[in-house]
Amino acid sequence: MPKTPKLPGRSDDKGINNGGGRFGAGNEEGAAWSIFGYIISGLLIWGGIGYGLDRWLGTSFIVLIGLLLGAGSGIYLVWLRFVKN
Amino acid sequence: MDGTLNLVGYGLSAIGPAIATGMIFAAYISGVARQPEARSVLQPIAFLGFALAEALALFGLVLAFVL
Amino acid sequence: MSQIAAPAGPGYEPPSTADFNLPPVFGDSLYTTKPVLLVLLSIVVISIFFIIASRKAAVVPSKLQFSGEMVYGFVRNNIGQEIIGHEFMRFVPFLFTLFTFVLVNNIFGIVPLLQFPAMSHVAFPYVLALFTFVIFHWVGIKKQGLGKYLKGIAFMPDVPKAVYILLTPIEIATFFLVRPLTLSLRLFANMFAGHLLLLVFITGGDYMIHDTNLFMKILAPFSFAMGIGMTFFELMVQCLQAYIITLLTALFIAGALADEH
């Protein structure tokens, strides 16, 4: 494997939170898209569970609780990954 | 033309988060441009604000389909 | 549908999803439709270009060699090395293939006579995202072991146990469903919307110039001008989307390679 010289102007440690090492070298573009992914999947999963319970029990308010729970835990996950530390 | 009024409502409700996201990143970019060493301080705040604005937009999208 | 758009006569029929289902170019086979032929043509174009560009590698590069090296260097340094870090050379062939394939197929959307972005059929981005999906999970499992990799995805460290009930489904859905889906849908939606936008302006201008109303005839050139302006805007979007899909693929690979603390 040929070694490429290190590019000028690039430092290995940019001193920013890179989301627990899961999102590359602190790239804002990728971080913004993974935040979008977290929140949309939080809403889908917990909103979907609430919707299913509503269909099962014949009520109509659980989906709202599920959506709020999903959005809340999605934001909590973003806080854990990107803000804590 | 057919379709439901829910999606028109979603279109209107998406204006707010769109402007908010633009303002958050504009402020973040100009902050980092003025003071590059403030990046590590500004980045979590910008991301959290982006997450909140994004959650509102997606909430509107999901409610447009559910209601 | 056309009650609002059409004043009188046969009426303007706005372009719809039906305009994307092109008939076979020759024969009756589903495999000879325009998007499939364009994808094959793109493979031929990319191969010929890079074979010629790299055949006579000289220290003082010719223009062709220089442009080939510029694209390669962009993917290798600005995407591969910048994002993935010290192990990046293994992934450069895949990233480079992905970038050039998507770029050439997108740009076919505004090349005269071809004028159809194959990526506006959702099947093509799905397959590309499937490649990315398999590669970044494979890399992560190989590097960290299956159990450790899945544990790193599903369980955030330093969180109270009860919160896992809330967070673990979200993490799993993000990594295994939302990420490949958004990766492909972003590319698809951009190409689809862009092609539809061009269709609206060009067919709209064509309808207006054949209209009997003089006012409409006067307005028609503006529609064509918007079409031309949007074509250049599309060029920008097409290059940007090729860059973004490669960038996000590199980010996913980098995330799978990174060790959990």
TrEMBL record, chain A:
The protein, known as: Unannotated protein
The UniProt record lists the keyword Transmembrane: yes
Keywords of this entry: Membrane, Transmembrane, Transmembrane helix
TM annotation in the entry: 31-53, 59-79
Sequence segments annotated as region (Disordered): 1-22
From TrEMBL, chain B:
GO biological process: proton motive force-driven ATP synthesis
InterPro entries, alphabetized: ATP_synth_F0_csu, ATP_synth_F0_csu_DDCD_BS, ATP_synth_F0_csu_sf, ATPase_proteolipid_c-like_dom, F/V-ATP_Csub_sf
GO cellular component: proton-transporting ATP synthase complex; proton-transporting two-sector ATPase complex, proton-transporting domain
Pfam families documented for this protein: ATP-synt_C (PF00137)
Membrane topology category: Multi-pass membrane protein
Localization: Membrane
Hydrolase keyword on record: no
Domain V-ATPase proteolipid subunit C-like, residue spans: 10-67
Annotated keywords: CF(0), Hydrogen ion transport, Ion transport, Lipid-binding, Membrane, Transmembrane, Transmembrane helix, Transport
Signal peptide annotation: none
Residue spans crossing the bilayer: 12-33, 45-66
Primary localization class, coarse: membrane
GO MF: lipid binding; proton transmembrane transporter activity
Protein family: Belongs to the ATPase C chain family.
Name of the protein in its database record: Unannotated protein
Species assigned in the record: freshwater metagenome
Classification of source organism: unclassified sequences, metagenomes, ecological metagenomes
Automatic annotation (TrEMBL), chain C:
Keyword Transmembrane helix attached: yes
Cellular component GO terms, alphabetical: proton-transporting ATP synthase complex
UniProt keyword annotations, A-Z: ATP synthesis, CF(0), Hydrogen ion transport, Ion transport, Membrane, Transmembrane, Transmembrane helix, Transport
Membrane spanning residue stretches: 36-53, 91-111, 123-141, 162-181, 187-207, 214-234, 240-258
GO terms assigned for molecular function: proton-transporting ATP synthase activity, rotational mechanism
UniProt-annotated location(s): Membrane
Pfam families xrefs: ATP-synt_A
Membrane-topology annotation of the record: Multi-pass membrane protein
InterPro entries reported for this sequence: ATP_synth_F0_asu, ATP_synth_F0_asu_AS, ATP_synth_F0_asu_bact/mt, F0_ATP_A_sf
Keyword Transport: yes
PANTHER family associated with the record: ATP SYNTHASE SUBUNIT A (PTHR11410:SF0)
NCBIfam families: ATP_synt_6_or_A
Family, per entry: Belongs to the ATPase A chain family.
HAMAP family: ATP_synth_a_bact
Protein name: Unannotated protein
Gene source species: freshwater metagenome
